[in-house]
Amino acid sequence: NLLLLTVVWVGEYDEWLLPLDGRLPQAVLDAHNEQNVAAGKVKGRLVAVPQQADYGVMFSRTDLLTKYGYASPPTTVEQMDEMINQIVPQERKSNPNFLGVSGQIKAYEGGTCNVLEWLLGENAGIILEPDGTLSSLDQSSPTGQRAISVGRRWRDWARRGWILLGQDEWPSMREWLRGNVLFHRNWPLVAVQTRQANVGFPWVMTRLPGNVGTLGGWLWGVSKYTKNPDAVLQVLQFFLSPEFQKIRTVQYGSPPTAKVLYNDSDVCAALGDCTLFRGINIATRPSGAAGKNYPQVTKAIYNYWVDIVNGVGTVEGKLGAMNREIARVLNIDVLGPPTNISISHPLALAVVVL
């Protein structure tokens, strides 16, 4: 009757899910973060609702920031770039393995999560927007130019050897726990791992530069074949209640989606820092816009962006190839609708001459 779906499965299971628009009280949905609710929509239709959230976050070595005169972690990529340039060369004199950034820069789903954070953090779109458009298709547009800038920055960091490449969550976390990283991108669970490891340095968990974080987490869907839709919807409303989400958060540490809980002292104690998650700008993976084709879309994103970071081809060439691949998979007309031109237009005159 009820299906528990990771956020990127929503589009794939769309045709087997009961549409929820109008089936749940609007007040119940309004109690949750709007972006978490939006993650359950496919082409504008609500087919799943939040169970819990998870967001990409950043861990920073506060001892090193203080040592080099920085009062707090970076809030912009420009600040992050400055700190890396100042700190990494100096620290490498005593620790040749020291890195500026470790994250999940690898050809898998975690790579897509990282890429979307880099882009949204610099106002460069999320590649495939909720309305099905490709935000960086036109590389001459402001968004396209910013996407190119993001690619060049990360390629430069990789060229200098300042970022960890080819690792997923756990191996990249191990470098952080060893003290070999200035900034580490991962999920909130790393805070627990870091505390349990009793690392020999002070640290802090904050939002990523640009106040962004890719949405992880899970959602509830209802099978459209259920024979008891009314009863299932009642259970679903209970699962959506702040009371139930609070129990999960306090027991398991999973970030809730009910907004009121970020003012709850018990919840904030379990999470460690409610202000970090309150009002975060969510980078939503385009599973809703891609639907059942999402596996092919995310593969295009992480493969081409790994090439960009690793210095394969040009940033512009790889960005264009990625957009064309996604357009092919989703049958997006990259040329736009047909346009009539006058007989005096240069193109028309050229055709006449030919």
TrEMBL record:
The UniProt record lists the keyword Signal: yes
Protein name: Uncharacterized protein
Family (UniProt): Belongs to the bacterial solute-binding protein 1 family.
SUPFAM superfamilies named in the record: Periplasmic binding protein-like II
Pfam family, one: SBP_bac_8
Superkingdom field: Eukaryota
Record's keyword terms, sorted: Signal, Transport
Keyword Signal: yes
